[in-house]
From TrEMBL, chains A, B:
Residues the record marks as active site: 207 (proton donor)
Protein name, as recorded: Homoserine dehydrogenase
Residue ranges constituting the ACT domain according to the UniProt record: 355-434
PROSITE patterns (alphabetical): ACT (PS51671), HOMOSER_DHGENASE (PS01042)
CDD domains: ACT_HSDH-Hom
GO molecular function per UniProt: homoserine dehydrogenase activity; NADP binding
Presence of the UniProt keyword Glycosyltransferase in the record: no
InterPro entries cross-referenced by the UniProt entry: ACT-like_dom_sf, ACT_dom, Asp/hSer_DH_NAD-bd, HDH, HDH_cat, HDH_CS, NAD(P)-bd_dom_sf
Annotated L-homoserine binding sites: 192
Residues that, per the record, bind NADP(+): 10-17
A GO BP annotation: methionine biosynthetic process
EC number from the UniProt entry: 1.1.1.3
Pfam family, one: NAD_binding_3
Length: 440, 440
């Protein structure tokens, strides 16, 4: 059997402690599978004295991650600290700079510095593995980086934030408000005390930027993502969607178009009978559409200490199975010098169907006016629904829901602006994009 | 850049021709991704003169696969001939015996000889990759063999035969009979002229036997699979299932139980709202339940020249990215000597819910008798439905449908036999097992 693979772990939170426990408990089985033992030789974390329920006595303790990365006797540096900046950034750089492989679950770090780190990895013959950074336990990085080699990818999209999916699922199933479901998510530990990063879509955007680079062979462009969170979604939208045969999900979508690459994170209507519409609660899902393989959808746990640890372990095992210096797996699918510049498509040129919910004064001619504004912008309608609570005209505001055939964001924005200027709207219109899976 | 990876392809049918075309058209892009070119240096097929729409002039033609495997100047032997026996078997053995890696899409070969071939691969330091052999383009082999390293797997199940799923989907959507849908599948090329291998479940069984070995680390036991096809499923079953909140799918299921491993292929009721229930038409899906990661479900194309070629290409690219002699990836997840013996659980001890449809004479006391026979076998019922076409007793046979809570196959068989002996049954009872995904 080959020499043991020596790993150092930086960060002993939920994921780190799970990983230590699993590596210890399954030492023999892993050695059999990998053809060599995996030994944790060094660890670091914020607090040396905290009881994590695991035995660290056989490992060298480092007071900081940089010292571990720079000096420990390790083959792999496992970064589980999180955060786009220090101390993770310098520690990962230090490890790669001396040819030590890096396994990380840190999406923020990769979204901000992924290409620079990939370059460093290539330069020093090290691997940079990060399966756990996107959609937790779902092996989407491996699918894009390995299984789909040779495919040209047209679209990647998915449910990549469990907090948002939990809230949207609960709103629909129990008829509760966004606020009530957010509170419940916080109570269960599915949402942070400050939930903005999840519910405004930033977390999904970080993950999407990594998938975009892998899928299209471009530089990471985490700042060029169109972003809408779910705070604006009401139970009325969810009910209206269901009536029309749709369900609302927060999707991250990266798509190749004639004018560049679209990266969008926003509430999205997906057909009720589609597979992804059935993905409930904190579960994640990622779909990849490619020209040779076709459509691949993967569904699984997107977060949690164990699921994340499993993905990290898979990355470590891949290194253990390869012999040192023996592999060529560029971090983002192709060498950094072969990555293409990222050309952003403007959201205005986005093409697709739209759901538009309008609250209007109950006046003669409103319907005709709306239809005219749509026609003027060459928007054809799949359906128009008026939900009236009152059988006869009462002067109370009415809700009108439009579902458009494929059109452009620009046309929709113009039509909605024109409708707004007519003076019969009550409150703001709600506009939700529709996304259709390629197959069923 | 490293030396080119030289491959020989045996079999130039739909998949083989797709593969040649893709390797030629995407030569540069693949070289960038893999860090070395992939060159087809040798080919063989049944008919040298057939026009396959691809240029074979740069390759050495071999009249038979064995000569190619034994003598060609290749690093990888790609076996796309199919069939459990010759000429595939000897050719693959010959390639492995001289340390040439093998990539194959041949499920029948692996089901029959997988472990022997894996042993040969290990002995000679070669890789045996077979992503395309199970569920076509879905990277389930990679997920089990790599991503889930360290996990203990409890159940693997899935829709692995597109023909059956197409027929069942069409029956439900269009209210047609099994025979009518089979004919349509044959017309569209989704079913063979002799469809028995697909519709009787044998194809699914081959694939399941490979997944079982990978999932549980056991020897392949393709002959120890409980098998029921879909020929017995009527449109009445499908409607009754829908009424009760279920959909019928042909599943292959491998499950660890206290008494051994269950391998079963049979029509299965899955909850309508589950993700796998939404997998329609020729699409495949495989779910893996494991202790660290949780549940992972993958959905994608299970057959077709391109999807299969994509999986084969992924396997070739994995070899191209590794340097010769530099990897340790046992074909079935652990070295052949570390594989456990397969211990078969008897179908009689299977535990789960059951759907039972009985056609009975319209006599007083029948309902009570059925309920009594169930109770005598300690079977508790989730629901009982009587579908009567007639509002009053007419003497016409009635249909009674039972859905049980979790019970054993043995109890159900005893109860059904007891009911049969009562003399009020018309025709044979229909019994369909219920399978529940772990999550939602």
């Amino acid at each position: 059997m080959a020499d043991a693979l020596k790993i150092g772990i930086a960060g002993l939170g939920t994921v780190g402690a799970s990983l230590v426990r699993i590596l210890q408990e399954r030492h023999e089985a892993l050695a059999t599978t990998c053809g060599r033992a995996i030994e944790i030789t060094a660890v670091t974390a914020r607090d040396r004295n905290r009881d994590r329920g695991v035995d660290l006595s056989a490992m060298t303790w480092h007071d900081d991650a940089l010292s571990l990365a720079e000096t420990a006797d390790i083959d792999v540096f496992v970064e589980l600290m999180g955060g786009a900046g220090e101390p993770a950034l310098s520690a990962v750089k230090a490890a790669l700079s001396r040819g030590v492989h890096v396994v990380t679950a840190n999406k923020a770090l990769l979204a901000a510095h992924g290409i620079a780190l990939a370059g460093l990895a290539e330069e020093h013959g090290a691997l940079l593995n990060y399966e756990a950074a996107v959609a937790g336990g779902i092996p989407v990085i491996k699918a894009l980086r390995e299984s789909l080699t040779g495919n040209t990818i047209s679209r990647v999209y998915g449910i990549m934030n469990g907090t948002c999916n939990y809230i949207l699922t609960k709103m629909e199933k129990e008829g509760l408000s966004f606020e009530a479901c957010l509170k419940e998510a916080q109570r269960l530990g599915y949402a942070e005390a400050d939930p903005a990063f999840d519910i405004e879509g930033n977390d999904t955007a970080h993950k999407l930027s990594i998938l975009t680079s892998l899928a299209f062979g471009t530089a990471i462009a985490a700042d060029d993502i169109y972003l809408e969170g779910i705070t604006n979604i009401s139970i009325d939208d969810i009910h209206a969607a269901a009536d029309l045969g749709y369900r609302i999900k927060l999707l991250g979508v990266a798509q190749r178009t004639d004018s560049g690459i679209e990266q969008r994170v926003h509430p999205t209507m997906v057909p009720l009978e589609s597979v992804i519409a059935q993905v409930d609660g904190v579960t994640n899902a990622v779909a990849i559409e490619s020209d040779i393989l076709g459509e691949l959808l993967m569904v699984g746990p997107g977060a949690g200490g164990n699921a994340t640890a499993s993905a990290v372990l898979g990355d470590i095992a891949d290194i253990a199975k390869s012999r040192p210096g023996a592999q060529h797996v560029p971090a983002f699918g192709r060498p950094v010098t072969a990555l293409l510049p990222y050309k952003q498509a403007q959201i205005q040129s986005h093409e697709g169907g739209y759901f538009i919910r309008l609250k209007v004064l109950d006046k003669t001619g409103v319907f005709a006016s709306i239809a005219t504004r749509m026609a003027e912008n060459r928007i054809s309608l799949e359906s128009i629904v008026q939900h009236s609570k009152h059988p006869v005209e009462t002067g109370e505001p009415q809700t009108i829901i439009l579902v458009t055939h494929a059109t452009t964001e620009e046309s929709v924005r113009k039509a909605v602006a024109a409708i707004k200027s007519e003076g019969y709207l009550v409150g703001d219109p709600q506009v939700i994009r529709i996304e259709r899976p390629k197959t069923a």
